[in-house]
Every structure is written in C-alpha cells, then in structure tokens.
Amino acid sequence: MLTVIPRCLAAVAATALCATSAAVYAQGQPAAEADARWSVSGFGTLGAAWHDADDTQFRRSVDQRRGTRANELDFGIDSTLGLQVHGALTPQWSVLAQAVMNQGRQGEWGPHLVWGFVKYVPND
Questions:
Q1: How far apart are CA 96 and CA 81, in angstroms?
Q2: pTM of this prediction?
Q3: I need a labelling partner for 63 at 20 to 30 A (CA). Which of 15, 78, 79, 108 fits?
C-alpha cells in the first residue's frame, strides 16, 4: 500500500502541472512570473465490514471484484485515502485536482485520479 502513494502524488502533481501550464499559456505570462498560491489537503476513511450471512458478500461498489465474506472482518472494502491540490494561479485562473487510493477491481490498492479541473473567472 505504501509503495503506491508516490504514484498517487505524481498523478495529482502531473494534473496540476498541466493545468498550470495551460492557464499560464492562456494568460500570456512566462511560467516564472505566475503568482501561484498552492494548498494541499488530504483525507482518509477507515471502514470495517463484517456480517454472518453465508450466502452474501458486502461490496462498497460494483467496481470491487469480491466483497466481505461471512464471519470475516474486512478493513479494505470501505477504506480510502485521498489528496487534493488547489492552485490559485492568478486572480482569474485556478486549478484543482483530487486523487484517491482505495481497493480496486482485483483487490489491489492503487491511486486513481478522481477529477481535476481548470477554473477561469473573466473580468467584469
């Protein structure tokens, strides 16, 4: 699990870098002159699931290959780590990206870029 954290950070950083380059290019300023203010925040959820029905498996979503089996305490089904990066590039341009790390379709833990966007607020 700890080996995929750098990949998660790299995915968020790559998104922020691409968005920064696009915003600075559109603004017509050299990248060195861009007045960027960045913030990074994270979040996490530790979830546990257990049940005693032999013919049932609990899954958080259909993206998960298997669910929690009967009489088995499972912390991986509903646990998530996340990271958000926000950059205020100029008064008009900002970027935001979010990546999460949770259990995937094959039971592996890996980073997923959930969303990212570029915001432009025109002058009045």
A1: 17
A2: 0.58
A3: 15
